[in-house]
Amino acid sequence: MNVFEECLIDWEFAEQWRPVVERLAERAHDWPMTTPAPEDFWIWRPIECPESQEIGGLLIWTDLVCTSDDSVGVTLGAQVDRAGLRCGSLSSHCPGGAGELDDFTLVVPTAEGRSLSDVADALLGWIVLESQRWNQLQQRLAGG
Predict the structure, then answer these.
(1) Using CA atoms, how far apart are residues 17 and 76, in angstroms rounded to an integer?
(2) CA atoms within 13 A on the CB side of 105
(3) pLDDT (tens digit, 9 = 90+) per residue, 75-124?
């Protein structure tokens, strides 16, 4: 059982966000090899901001590890709330305040008719791209 399936069993978020995690649980069975494994993700309440005030949302994140010393190199975060999907790096593995959302690089508004399953696919697509960039950087730093 992967972290997404476990989250669905112990669901503690607003029901409207459930399709995001359901889609990630589905995708975990054909997970891209270049990304952290599904068990290396965390799901939590959203970073507090105006878009998450009334109806909540989800914050999903994972760490990319430095190959040289197995330390956390960067934490990738994705917040889904009424604004849609925002993805970017978080300042640490323990996300803080709304200021962290200011640096998010990918924004996918749900108002454009996208389903939450589509938003989950966009989230995973972004994680794949960022993981590939990270892996290339690690290879260059290792001299490869």
Answers:
(1) 20
(2) 9
(3) 888 889 888 888 888 876 555 555 555 566 767 766 567 888 999 999 99
**Which residues, in sequence order, are CB contacts of 140 under 8 Å at separation 6+?**
none
Residue type, 41: F
Which amino acid is located at 58 in the chain? Answer: L
Q: Which residues have a Cβ under 8 Å from the Cβ of 129 and sit 6 or more positions away?
A: none
Mean of the per-residue pLDDT values for the chain? 84
> What does the block give as tokens for 7?
């989250």
72 neighbors 56 (Cβ within 8 angstroms): no
Residue 88 CA to residue 94 CA, distance in Å, equals: 14
32 SS3 class: coil
Rounded to the nearest angstrom, the gap between the alpha carbon of residue 51 and the centroid of all alpha carbons in its chain is: 17
Contact between 57 and 51 (Cβ < 8 Å): yes
E strand or H helix at 90 = strand 84-90
| Residue 31: strand, helix, or coil | coil
Residues contacting residue 13 through CB under 8 Å, at least 6 positions apart: 43, 45, 56, 58
How big is the chain, counted in residues? 144
